[in-house]
Write a structure and sequence with these properties.
The protein has 232 residues and is an alpha/beta fold. It contains nine helices and seven strands. It has two domains: 41 residues, no CATH class; 189 residues, 3-Layer(aba) Sandwich (Rossmann fold). The chain is globular, with a radius of gyration of 18 Å. The chain binds zinc ion.
Length: 232
């Protein structure tokens, strides 16, 4: 009886606040949330999880001591991924990130990736940027992944002390020189001996993840993994 009432209530709420797919704007079915199954199915997946050594891992060679790294989607201009990312980052549709994080983590877990992960750490935004945007998008990806792996997210363990907007205009060489002080860990002892999955939305040069990851290793993290939703 109770379930029936909840289901009827859901249907009535749905009439006034239709649940819409974040990718194609079609109405979502009951078992779907944030994204419809067709959009999820059609995403341009990297299949990096099937590689022996994948391009994201190669990107970190000689820069960051990772155990493994993986990316879910190819980011292309004027693609559905760009639309999704835009809605996710700038239009307050945080559920899209959680949904994609979950979908990614289900694949990874099935393929025995990151199976010994203890905690998930999203790459933080600088305080002023987070205030402006309203939230840190990487946190929502991390939450989706953490649900699948059944581990905790530690969003505040690492702080971004430098607003590095201007970084995107510099060359990779210049960037690497001044990223060392971008992140700060207040209580490093909490991380000692932990296996950490560091999560970000899009990877381009990898400079941000390199800086954050190296701070985590300095704090005594024993194994470091990296996951991003997309690679540009
Ligand atoms: Zn859709």
């Amino acid at each position: 009886m109770m379930n029936w009432l909840i289901s009827v209530a859901d249907d009535i709420i749905g009439l006034f606040y239709p649940r819409i797919c974040g990718g194609c704007d079609s109405h979502l079915l009951k078992h779907e949330s944030n994204l419809c199954l067709i959009c999820l199915h059609n995403l341009p997946k990297t299949y990096f999880w099937d590689y022996d050594v994948n391009p994201v891992e190669k990107l970190f060679w000689g820069r960051l001591e990772i155990c493994s790294a993986c990316t879910f989607l190819h980011f292309e201009k004027q693609s559905v991924v760009q639309d999704l990312m835009h809605r996710f980052k700038y239009e307050g549709k945080s559920g899209i990130g959680t949904e994609l994080g979950k979908a990614f983590a289900h694949i990874l877990k099935d393929k025995q990736w990151f199976s010994d992960v203890d905690i998930i750490v999203p790459v933080p935004l600088h305080f002023t940027k987070e205030q402006r945007r309203g939230y840190n998008q990487s946190l929502y990806i991390a939450k989706g992944m953490a649900e699948v792996y059944d581990v905790k997210v530690w969003p505040n363990i690492i702080t971004r002390v430098v607003a590095s907007d201007s970084q995107t205009r510099k060359s990779r060489y210049q960037r690497v020189e001044n990223v060392d002080d971008v992140f700060w860990i207040e209580n490093p002892s909490r991380l000692k001996g932990k296996t950490v999955l560091l999560v970000d939305d899009v990877i381009t040069t990898g400079a941000t993840l390199e800086a954050a990851g190296n701070q985590l290793l300095k704090a005594g993290v024993s194994r470091l993994y990296v996951a991003t939703l997309a690679i540009a």
